[in-house]
Design goal:
The chain is of the alpha/beta class. It contains 5 helices and 10 strands, in the order βαββαβαβαββββαβ. Helix 1 links the parallel strand 1 and strand 2. GO terms for molecular function: oxidoreductase activity, acting on the CH-NH group of donors, NAD or NADP as acceptor.
């Protein structure tokens, strides 16, 4: 499969690149500038694409079969992820390319019949995480109302951090996944596995999914 990854040098994007290459896919990395080329592994094709320019993104998507956007916005500018996602969706609509949007857990309903989502529960998130969660919710709402692009929205567990590639996890849709101890977590490595799995299987067209241990 010919796959283009946006945000290919980031925490999640770099792991998606590693996972996709290991499976033998033809991977293109879309980055901001040539300085980022040195961060990319061997065997990947780099391309410069301005994430704020749908036309440039569409040009980068031409001749690809699938796109994964792992774009993030920097601290203090969390809300910019909405505009970046809009550009990705516009480009995907122009090219007819299926795209997986790497999002957040904010939209997920808490388990055990709670009326709250991860974002709406006043006691769930640390205060410093709330701006990111609000931006992720706005990002999800944008995707949910998009009708022209063929998107999939991927939510990690509440805790997403570097770890091991176990290759074993659960998949859900709209409810936060927790383990027997009540923890909601997934390694970035296994999240990347789930993203490439979805790229290959297309189980969630114009829908959202989540993964967790």
């Amino acid at each position: 499969m010919k796959l283009i990854v946006f945000g290919a040098t980031g925490d999640v994007g770099s792991r998606v690149v590693t996972e996709a290459l290991a499976r033998g896919h033809d991977v293109t990395a879309a980055v901001r500038n040539e300085a980022a080329f040195a961060k990319l592994p061997e065997g990947i094709r780099p391309v410069i694409a301005d994430a704020t320019d749908p036309a440039a993104l569409a040009t980068a998507m031409v001749s690809q079969e699938m796109a994964i956007s792992a774009l993030r916005s920097p601290p203090g500018r969390e809300g910019e992820i909405v505009a970046l996602t809009r550009s990705i969706l516009n480009a995907a609509s122009r090219t007819g390319l299926r795209v997986i949007i790497v999002g957040g857990a904010a939209r997920l309903h808490l388990p055990n019949g709670s009326p709250h989502t991860v974002l709406s529960d006043p006691d769930f998130l640390p205060e410093n995480i709330v701006p990111i969660a609000r931006a992720s919710m706005a990002q999800w709402e944008l995707c949910a109302t998009e009708t022209s692009a063929n998107w999939t929205y991927a939510s990690p567990s509440a805790l997403l951090q570097p770890g091991q590639r176990l290759g074993a996890f659960r998949t859900g849709t709209d409810t936060l996944l927790v383990d027997e101890a009540g923890k909601s977590e997934i390694s970035m490595e296994d999240f990347a596995v789930a993203l490439v799995d979805e790229a290959q299987s297309a189980k969630f067209p114009r829908a959202a999914f989540t993964v967790g241990y």
